[in-house]
Amino acid sequence: MAHENDTPAEKILFDAANALRGSVESAEYKHLVLGLVFLKYVSDNFDARRQAVEELSRDSESEWYVEDDQDRADLLEDRDAYEVANTFWVPTEARWPALLALGSQSDIGVQLDRALDLIERENPALKDVLPRVYARAALSPETLGKLVSEIAKIGFGSDPEKARDVLGRVYEYFIKEFARSEGHRGGEFYTPANVVRLLVELLQPDHGRIFDPACGSCGMFIQSARFLRAHAGTGDELSVFGQELNQATWRIGRMNLAIHGLSGNVALTQGGSLLNDAHPTLKADFVIANPPFNQKKWGAAQVAEDSRWKWGIPPDGNANYAWIQHFASHLAPDGRAGFVLANGSLTSTTSGEGAIREALIRDDLVDCIVALPGQLFYTTGIPVCLWFLDRNKASANERDRRGETLFIDARSMGHKISRTQIELSDEEIGRVTSVYRAWRGQTGAGEYSDEPGFCRSADLAQIEQAGFTLSPGRYVGAPEDEEDAVAFEERMAELIESLEDEMAENQRLAGAVRVALEQVGRAI
Questions:
Q1: R_g of the chain, CA atoms, integer Å
Q2: Under CATH, to which class is 186-477 assigned?
Q3: Where are the domains of the chain?
Q4: d(C-alpha 322, C-alpha 309), whole Å
Q5: What pLDDT shows up at residue 298?
Q6: For position 248, what pLDDT does the model report?
């Protein structure tokens, strides 16, 4: 299958899910579709391995060679022949031909749930991951049978790597489209692929423990594994640690990891990472995250005495500096972090945030700040920034950068992909990446030099002179009025988003009142 821009396959599947809008809530049909896509993938992958084993069983020079037909039949049902190739074992009743044969029979939902249950029980890596939602879904057997028939049109082929790539793209497309259609709620677990790629290319996670305490659909881990494989490594060389508080999102993330052949310690906890840290002793080589923007009333009082707040107690009115310190506290002595935040984190001085930022800077943790344009995300139009922390700026094989911070202003980058959204191109990602690597003094990266209007390396004295603000425009030479315009744009976007939330809540309450009045009227 080609990329989504070259083929309608992913869109056809999304349209099939979209047809369910009148029957179920979007939060439910997301799982109805993704669960079936996963079933189709594991079944096709199983069939491909089965065909390969049969061919090997007829090859006299193969270790799998057998002469007797009954022995061959037994071999084809020997789970060891599948597990040795990292193929999920699929029981007979859960294989796609059996599911497709259900047609529109009355218990099709029960049978689909049973198939998922069987696969989960036979594959420990999928424990508590697969969604059993079909029996209770508000769908007629005919509609559910039609959905199965539509998903049957996906062919994953016989090459496991290509099949994984196809499924990964389908998943990414679905998650992206559901995020777009669900607005704020959907975007909580989807970071646009171009933003994730930029983060990963700058952070360069090439070994050890990688941690995402707001991991959502696990896209950061997937892209990190791709980066490592592209640089002559394997995804298995990364030890994955994550945390998520939404069970439905956690399930999607775990399925996403399984699709890409990754496993790890991804915890599901109530309260989230800030209030209930699932990995309190973890010291990671890399931290990568996109935490919730400008999270308000997050429960600061419950963890006011926490040891993570080494640089200052974060306010309850905004969790940005709680997240920053959470990331920093989980870094190993040579660890590095890269994460997305709203631009307000660069300049805010309210509720002690300025003092915390100053402490982080004086502790020489801030390695690089990248200002990005607005409209990169589905859920908010505000411009965002990337923070990069480094516990050891004098690490081996790189230039000694102690006392220095790099500022990159990429706000003018990006191209329109819709009326309300932009995307960074490969060339733009490459430009930012090459500047950062040159500044760090990496082998083969070339010489670094400041570029007015784009990048500048500043020392502590210069940052102190700027009042410990970290907005790149202050350092690279952006006009003062442009800085003011960006700050205004962010504040206005936040106000609009808040107003939209309030209007939606008012509409919900008005609907509840109407229903209550109708019930009273019928009672009278």
A1: 25
A2: alpha beta
A3: 9-178, 186-477, 479-524
A4: 7
A5: 95
A6: 78
* CA 217 – CA 193 distance, rounded (Å): 12
Gap between the Cα atoms of 472 and 329, Å rounded: 25
Phi, psi of 279 (to 5 degrees): -130, 60
Among all chains, which residue has been given the structure tokens 């950068």? 401
Name the amino acid, one letter, at 462: Q
Q: What are the tokens at 201? A: 């290319």
Residue 485 banded pLDDT, cuts 50, 70, 90: very low
Q: What single string gives the DSSP state of each residue in 139-194?
A: --HHHHHHHHHHHTT----S-HHHHHHHHHHHHHHHHHHHHHHHTHHHHTT---HH
Has residue 506 got a pLDDT over 60?
A: yes
Question: Can you tell me the distance from the alpha carbon of 422 to that of 312, in angstroms, rounded to the nearest whole number?
Answer: 36
At which residue do the structure tokens 């191209």 appear?
Answer: 415
- Tokens 């079909």 belong to residue: 134
Topology at the third CATH level for domain 9-178: Ferritin (1.20.1260)
Strands 238-244 and 208-212 turn out to be parallel
Sheet holding 331-342, edge to edge: 264-268, 238-244, 208-212, 284-289, 331-342, 384-390, 366-371, 404-409, 455-459
Task: Output the CA angle 339-344-350, nearest 5 degrees.
Answer: 120
Cα–Cα nearest to 366, from 472, 444, 487:
472
Burial 453-464 (b: 16+ CB within 10 A, else e): ebbbbbeeeebe
Report yes or no: 99 and 40 within 8 Å, Cβ to Cβ: no
Hey, what are 316's tokens? 């309850």
- Residue-wise DSSP of 350-407: GGGHHHHHHHHHHTT-EEEEEE--S--SSS--S-EEEEEEES-TT-TTS---TTEEEE
Mean pLDDT for all residues in the chain: 86
Instruction: Kindly list the distances between the CA atom of residue 330 and the CA atoms of 121, 285, 310, in Å, as whole numbers in the listed order.
Output: 34, 9, 12
Query: Amino acid letter at 69?
Result: D
Query: How confident is the model over 23-46, as pLDDT tens digits?
Result: 666 556 777 888 888 899 899 999
* Residue 331 DSSP SS3: strand
Tens digit of each residue's pLDDT (9 = 90 or more) over 191-200? 888 999 999 9
For 104, the 3-state DSSP assignment is coil
Containing H/E element for 304?
Answer: none
Q: Please say whether the dihedral angle defined by the alpha carbons of residues 461, 466, 469 and 470, taken in this order, is positive or negative.
A: negative
d(CA 216, CA 232): 27
